[in-house]
Design goal:
By secondary structure, this protein is α+β, with helices and mostly antiparallel strands. The chain has a four-stranded mixed beta sheet. A two-stranded antiparallel sheet has the order 1-2. Strand 5 and strand 6 form a beta hairpin.
């Protein structure tokens, strides 16, 4: 009796398919948009880490813990002038990368760069001699896997996807840089998944610093998972699709395998990654844009405005409640998740820069007074179903006008993405806020290295000049 054709046709477990894809990815096979997306995320994430090192108290505990632990000086803790074991440097840098909420995101929400980039840079420094092309390929692979999973799992807004799948993407990037075989990378995914988790209340719950630090855990987890696999540790080869596996545990078995694998290796979805012009949760950006547009188009001063109504779908409601607390956030972390405070800050300053969100800004009476004019209007039409919906605001003026403005074509959105020049300028602005601001020549050197990264024989050059500024302090 011959073997069953059904048994012969049984598809390989998804973890093995993705591991083979990641292990065998090469720069030469990448489409140009994937190369560009990886380079943008590297420069953007480096800049945001630098800004956080000097402005966000929430990340300091992570940095201090890593400093106190000591260990082999394998990788740079960016902006702070010391080196640490690779996994712990990834932890500190990952915590800084997300705590400003200024990091990249997909058009469908969630953040990949804050898990992938700190993990990849830590491995690059640990290994030494990793080419720029290999770093680009590793980041592109991580971005692609992250986005494929993000789009095609049955998410009910119960798990924090950025950390749940971020550690898988970080493991893929770190494993690629460690030259793991497909078999070893399959095992690495298991060790990444052990460290996967995160409840949604941690993202925006008032008073908590969890929402800023979580990427540190997924970045560290990716490095640790890849190193364990390189040492020969064994995981499971049924991680994703097993009876009690990843998809069953986190998503009730709801996922679309065919879509996850569609054109794998042909189209890299990380090319769609978006970059933020404003240091705030992505779901607030279209309301910020709508507010600024309405004020500019109708030549309004803040004194002209009697009430600002922000229309809120399910993804915005948590940014508005409890309303009084959101109008006057107590911490910078809360401020970045407060829709009333964010639109008020933008209205008062005519923009929203990282320097506008500081400890002193929380007590800015002009912003606090305007925030009391902001009310939320429930709007189910803005519920989040696939891509992030565009927000809408209505302004009631003191002379009785009702002005409505949609937040379509928001800067940094898929219809109006930031260019390389935009990201390069953002990097310079962020670097100027670092704990030890690099001099202009070192900022320029990093911008040049990132732009021409494929020519670098040692990708660690990307952090070397920036590290020198803090080391010399």
């Amino acid at each position: 009796m011959t073997h069953s054709t059904k048994a012969a046709a049984r598809p390989a477990e998804l973890s093995g398919v993705l591991a083979e894809f990641a292990a065998e990815a090469a720069y030469e096979k990448l489409p140009q948009p994937a190369i560009d997306g990886a380079k943008k995320s590297l420069l953007d994430t480096l800049g945001v880490i630098l800004a956080a090192s000097g402005t966000e108290p929430a990340s300091r505990a992570a940095v201090d813990v890593v400093r106190d632990m000591g260990g082999q000086a394998q990788a740079t803790v960016i902006g702070h002038g010391f080196r640490a074991p690779a996994a712990m440097a990834a932890f500190a840098n990952g915590a800084m990368a997300h705590c400003l909420n200024f990091d990249d995101q997909t058009p469908w929400g969630q953040h990949s760069g804050t898990s992938i980039v700190p993990a990849a840079l830590a491995v690059v420094e640990r290994q030494g001699g990793v080419s720029g092309k290999d770093l680009i390929a590793a980041v592109a692979v991580g971005q692609d896997i992250f986005t494929r999973l993000r789009r095609h799992v049955g998410w009910r807004q119960d798990w924090n996807l950025s950390s749940v799948i971020g550690v898988i993407a970080a493991t893929a990037a770190a494993g690629r840089l460690l030259n793991l075989s497909p078999d070893r990378l399959t095992h690495a995914f298991s060790f990444g998944a052990i460290q996967s988790g995160g409840f949604m209340d941690m993202v925006s719950g008032p008073g908590s610093e969890l929402g800023g630090m979580y990427a540190g855990f997924s970045a560290k987890g990716g490095v640790l998972a890849a190193l364990l696999a390189k040492r020969g540790a064994k995981g499971t080869d049924t991680l994703f699709e097993g009876t009690n596996g990843f998809f069953a545990t986190y998503f009730g078995g709801s996922y679309d395998r065919e879509k996850i694998l569609e054109n794998l290796g042909g189209e890299y979805y990380g090319a769609a990654t978006l970059y933020k012009p404003w240091p705030a949760v992505g779901t607030a950006h279209s309301h910020i844009h709508a507010t600024l547009e309405a004020i500019a188009r109708h030549d309004l001063s803040i004194d002209d405005i009697q009430e600002l109504r922000v229309h809120a779908g399910d993804c915005h409601e948590g940014l508005c409640a409890p309303l009084e607390a959101r109008r006057a956030p107590e911490t910078l972390m809360d401020a970045r998740f407060s829709l009333p405070f964010l639109v008020a800050t933008a209205a008062v300053h005519g923009d929203l820069k990282a320097r506008d969100l500081t400890q002193e800004a929380l007590r800015d009476q002009r912003v606090l007074d305007f925030a009391r004019k902001v009310v939320a209007v429930s709007d189910p039409a803005l519920d989040w179903k696939d891509e992030l919906p565009s927000g809408r605001v209505e302004i009631v003026t003191r002379d009785g006008r009702h002005i409505q403005q949609s937040g379509e074509h928001t800067p940094g959105s898929a219809t109006r993405p930031l260019t390389w020049n935009d990201i390069s300028a953002k990097f310079a602005d962020c670097a100027a806020l670092a704990a030890v601001p690099p001099p202009p020549e070192q900022i320029a050197a990093t911008q040049r290295t990132a732009a021409d990264l494929e020519s670098a024989d040692d990708a660690a050059e990307l952090v070397r000049s920036i590290a020198q500024a803090a080391n010399g302090h």
